[in-house]
Design goal:
This protein has 3 helices and 19 strands. By secondary structure, the chain is mainly beta.
Length: 395
């Protein structure tokens, strides 16, 4: 990261007039993650896909974050973070200028941090760091990202509080206003999580509830919440049903998650569990609440200070409206060429069984097809293999 004086950056980059203080600063930072990727069974006839793909370990981004010392231990803070496609230059997150994060707030050592804007939810902040996704990214994520473990969506219009750390314990809460006139609760999101860390042991747990917009006039056609507008649905390839794409007309989504991690010497191991429920109402195109139970395990070994290898397993079981099971095994290796540049090789195999719902008002059930991690590459069969060889640079 490059730290630049606020007086210089405000004039050169932001064009904002103001008085610069010695205690104030702005940081310009970013991540460039690029790979060559192979995915099998990627067409209706089983053809393979070879492509350039960015953002396996971390989403491509650049951003600005800054602080201003207000005195008495109080600071003003902000962060603006853009996401983009490294291969085309297009904006990510549905074309938003600062689709990854955009918030402003206040922080103090004794009372915590309060921020307002577009932000990560507490489960992403506290549960995801204790899963394999934290170490090897989307290839180790939940199939279809049905529990948002890979951060498929952020939260708009959000007010968030993060407590200080008290003897290893910390909590945070979030509430996002739906902004629907005449219907205060419509489209809102709320979430809370807590974590405790002592020595090599860490544990975290939390819950998130996000609501869809009211239907107009009768049946919804998609997820259209003002607070989580791009919520997690496995729909990159609409030719196939997708793991959870049939439930985009849900009235709300509730996700409960817990994770534990233990570090000893070069070994890191963690276990996590999520229960994601896609609730229906009279305006949904499905007739019964769909539930996904997810169990994940990860084991990593630091071979040298520069080299990390890891293995992950994810079990996802759907029941309620449809019943399908997804078993996924992931492998990864990462080697640091320097403090800011690393190369990686990650891969996964997934097997699907049972039946999943076809999207649409008249969608029936069909045999479940595989879809590794949160990529949305829906396979033409119940098996899929993905391998990515890449390089990542941070600045």
């Amino acid at each position: 990261m490059k730290r630049i004086a606020l007086s210089t950056l405000s004039l050169a980059l932001l064009g904002v007039a103001g008085v610069a203080h010695a205690q104030s600063s702005v940081t310009l930072y970013g991540v460039l993650d690029e790979s060559i990727q192979y995915v099998n069974n990627s067409t209706p006839h089983g053809g393979a896909l070879f492509q350039m793909f960015g953002g396996n370990l971390q989403g491509n981004r650049f951003g600005l974050k800054g602080t201003e010392d207000l005195g008495g231990g109080l600071k003003a803070i902000f962060q603006l973070e853009n996401g983009f496609d490294i291969n085309t230059g297009k904006l990510g997150q549905g074309g938003l200028m600062f689709g990854r994060q955009a918030y402003v707030g206040l922080t103090g050592d004794s009372w915590g941090t309060f921020t307002a804007g577009r932000q990560y939810d507490p489960l992403v902040d506290m549960i995801q760091p204790l899963t394999g996704d934290n170490y090897f990214g989307s290839t180790f994520a939940t199939p279809g990202d049905v529990d948002n473990n890979d951060n498929s969506f952020r939260v708009n219009n959000a007010l968030k509080y993060v407590s200080p750390v008290w003897s290893g314990f910390q909590f945070e809460g979030l509430y996002a206003l739906g902004g629907v006139a005449g219907a205060t609760g419509a489209g809102q999101t709320y979430s809370g999580a807590a974590t405790y860390a002592t020595g090599p042991f860490s544990v975290a747990a939390g819950y998130l509830r996000t609501k869809n917009s009211p239907a107009t006039p009768a049946l919804r056609s998609a997820w259209n919440s003002p607070t989580t507008g791009e919520a997690t649905f496995d729909t990159n390839f609409p030719t196939f049903a997708g793991i959870n794409s049939a439930y985009a007309t849900a009235s709300s989504i509730g996700i409960a998650s817990v994770a534990v991690q233990y570090v000893t010497g070069p070994w890191t191991g963690n276990l996590s569990y999520s229960n994601a429920q896609y609730y229906q109402d009279g305006s949904s195109t499905f007739k019964q609440t769909q539930k996904y139970e997810v169990g994940r395990a990860y084991l990593g070994y630091q071979v040298t200070p520069a080299a990390l290898v890891g293995i992950g397993y994810a079990y996802t079981k759907g029941h309620g409206d449809s019943s399908a099971t997804y078993n996924q095994v992931s492998l990864g290796g990462d080697y640091n060429l320097s403090k800011r540049t690393d190369t990686y090789l990650v891969g996964a195999w997934q097997h699907a069984s049972g039946q999943q719902r076809v999207p649409g008002a008249n969608g029936g059930l069909e045999s479940a097809t595989a879809s590794i991690g949160s990529y949305g590459n829906q396979a033409s069969t119940n098996n899929q293999v993905m391998v990515s060889l890449g390089i990542r640079h941070k600045f």
